[in-house]
Amino acid sequence: MVKQAGLRFLALACLSIIFVPHSSFAAREKYSLPELEMPIRIVVNPKFIAIEDDAVVKMYDSKNFQYMKSVGRKGQGPGEFQDEAFPWMSSESLLVNSSNKISFFNFNGDLINEIKHPLGYPLYPINGHYLGYFWNLREGYASCILYDSAFKPLKELDRGKGMFDRNTRRWELFEIFFYSINRDKIVVANRDGSGISIFDDRGNLTALIKPKYSPPHFTATDKANVTTYWTDVLKWPKSYLEGRIKNTKFPENFPPVLTCRLDDDHVYIVTYEKKGHHYLYFKYDYAGSEIKRAYLPLEMTAPHVSVPFDIYGDKLYQLVFNMESDKWELIVDDI
């Protein structure tokens, strides 16, 4: 049996078979990662793979996919992470966001520096500034903000409604939530679905990407699969589940964007449009020119939730639990 910490994700993996049969993928490569217990995020660059696994970052070689080391541990001291260990990699170092702290490590796993801050969400450093998010629960909106070196707001890059409407007391089912950096570029998925905004390192808009396609209809089957996820995976009690279903805004259509991923030269925009078990994605350069559109063999645990995945260099990397081997696998596909 898997370890107790991994039971929730085992259930999640079981449910993913319902929505997207694992056997339907023509995966190019599969690698067993027995070191993983409860993976949440995966980040890839040309040399390394960083996986957040229960408040620890586990590092792998991206050439041979061999386990290298664990970085950090649970705690509140130097090089320790509380609540989460959100990884991001530059060409020089591994950055880990945890509760109100950014930790910088070299790729040997040595702590270089730590910066404490008053903001809750992951921050990305960009040429002396920081890119982050701000949630205004009282007024019901969320903002993507460029902060200065003292974490004071410099410029609001995007604003949209939050997941919970305090006036109607209803929850949005979907959220467009993506912001990140690559070198001197900032990429933000606009929360209102109007497109993908690209900024320079001072927050000046340089391109607006608007993929031309129509988001698919959200069906009764999709709604049933969402409630099954809440029941069987999240294990919500019946009393809470009934209230949440009643107070959730199930839309007529899926949002135009599921999420984005970045590599050094491209922006990959993943959508909810699917053909069979493959999801439509768009590949753009940072000037906003479309390079390619095709379908991605992405596994979804529910209509609104994907497995942990990254895209780098025209390859899809995703983490899936193998029921037969009782271990997590890394699946790598050319796209």
Describe the structure.
This protein is mainly beta. 11% of the residues lie in helices and 47% in strands. Strands 1-31-30-29 form a 4-stranded antiparallel β-sheet. The chain has a 4-stranded antiparallel β-sheet with strand order 2-3-4-5, with no helix packed on it. The chain has a 4-stranded antiparallel β-sheet with strand order 8-9-10-11, with no helix packed on it. A hairpin with a 3-residue loop joins strand 2 and strand 3. Helix 1 packs antiparallel against helix 2. The longest helix is centred in the C-terminal third of the chain and has 14 residues.
- Structural shape: globular
Mean pLDDT: 90
Largest sheet: 4 strands, antiparallel
Radius of gyration: 20 Å
Q: Provide the spatial order of strands within the biggest beta sheet.
A: 1-31-30-29
Amount of helix? 10-25%
CATH superfamily, called what? TolB, C-terminal domain
Identify the CATH architecture: 6 Propeller
Ends distance: 34 Å
Structural class: mainly beta
What's the CATH class, please? Mainly Beta
How many domains? The number is 1
Q: How many alpha or pi helices?
A: 3
Query: Got a strand count?
Result: 31
CATH third-level topology:
Neuraminidase
Strand content: over 45%
| Poorly predicted runs of 5 or more residues | 1-24
Keywords:
four-stranded antiparallel β-sheet, 31 strands, mainly beta, single chain
Task: Quickly describe the structure.
With 335 residues, the protein is mainly beta.
